Amino acid sequence: MIGVYVHIPFCKSRCRYCDFYSTTLLPRRKEYVEALLREIELRGVKNPDTIYLGGGTPSVLEAEDIERILEAIGTDKAEEVTIEMNPGDLVTVSGYRLAVSGRINRVSIGVQSFQDQLLRTIGRRHTAEEARHAIRALREAGIRNLSIDLMYGLPGQTMELWKADVEEAIRTGAEHISCYCLSYEEGTPMWQDLQAGRICETDEETENAMYDYLCEQLRAAGYEHYEVSNFAKPGYRALHNSRYWNDTPYIGLGAGAHSYDGQRRSWNPGDIERYIETFSGAKDIKMARDLYVEEEVLTDEQKRIERIMLGLRTCEGIEKGEGDPKNQQIFRGSPGERLKVKGERFVHDGLLREEGDRLIATQKGLHILNRIIEELI
């Protein structure tokens, strides 16, 4: 069982809040696709269980190039094939060539907001009406597994505007909704605006109220809250992304992509010039890895910390006991004692709850989940 992530780093313009690896060097797209096809060949990737095309903006590639990438990887055994799309790209290309000739069965569309003034604030290049048009186009193209991204805690975003966004997202009938609180990443234009006093950060009380409203409304609409930022109708959890939270191996292809084999984490540095040069000229995978790929072997302690960090983000939480071999390190030695004692205190304070042999974050605990995790590890 393996999942494949493909990073397409190109964007027509950068969002003002984003610090993911991306580039506006659109003329390099064809060369990048050729290098990507070579990496797929050298790494022997074939017919994975899930495929996720992320970015950047994968939909800035020609549909024909997306088809070539998917054909090289193989979709015969893939239960889920996801592509991230920008709403504006779907206005001019109806259904993005019918969701790339039927190879794609899940689309994640970066709506972020249905309010034009907020979209302008965060530097999105689409309008609210274009987002609505894109959703209709994808449905007409036959997409029956649609995920919408929303953001809250934006400068100038009132509770009324947020309620309107949540209600419109529900009305679309999207099978999956991901919602993220704006974070000001150092060096981004929005971080610079914040430092200069040109915009104000949303206060924590308002952010918490927005998050609580979101959770309440989505649950009432039949969505399960299966991860801190992710909600799905029954049977529509994101299969590929769940690998990241469940300690399951995956392969990352492309500049800036990460891979994990259960013990070793490796990554391709975010540099398309080096990436194109390396994989275009590599004779074998060893040569390419030596020239380009970086990696680290995780210790038992690092894996224990990651299980706590990622597990508490999900509705399944983390196991208290030692029955599960994957989790047996959690309660061993002094770190385990710390988790046990502090876990009991968090249960007493209503921040965690016990369910059988597991600890799961409560709604109250989700507000300060990072602080809880810091104390537990």
Walk me through what this model shows.
- The chain is of the alpha/beta class and 377 residues long.
- The protein has 2 domains: 3-244, Alpha-Beta Barrel (TIM Barrel), CATH 3.20.20; 302-376, Arc Repressor Mutant, subunit A (Orthogonal Bundle), CATH 1.10.10.
- It is 42% helix and 19% strand.
- It is built from 16 helices and 15 strands.
- The chain has helices spanning 29-43, 63-73, 89-92, 95-101, 116-121, 128-140, 159-171, 189-196, 204-220, 239-245, 272-281, 285-292, 300-311, 333-348, 363-366, 369-376, and strands at 3-8, 50-55, 80-85, 106-112, 146-152, 176-181, 224-227, 230-232, 250-253, 258-260, 264-267, 294-297, 318-319, 352-355, 358-361.
- It has a 9-stranded mixed sheet with strand order 7-8-6-5-4-3-2-1-9, sandwiched between helices. Strands 10-11-12 form a 3-stranded antiparallel sheet, covered by helices on one side. A 3-stranded antiparallel sheet has the order 13-15-14.
- Strand 2, helix 2 (63-73) and strand 3 (80-85) form a beta-alpha-beta unit.
- Helix 1 crosses helix 11 (272-281) and helix 2 (63-73) packs parallel to helix 4 (95-101).
- It starts with a strand and ends with a helix.
Shape: globular
What percent of the residues sit in helical stretches (DSSP H or I)? 40-55%
Major sheet: order of its strands? 7-8-6-5-4-3-2-1-9
CATH superfamily of the largest domain: Aldolase class I
- Classify the secondary structure makeup into a structural class: alpha/beta
CATH topology of the largest domain: TIM Barrel
Q: Which spans of ≥5 residues are poorly predicted at pLDDT below 50?
A: 322-329
Mean pLDDT: 90
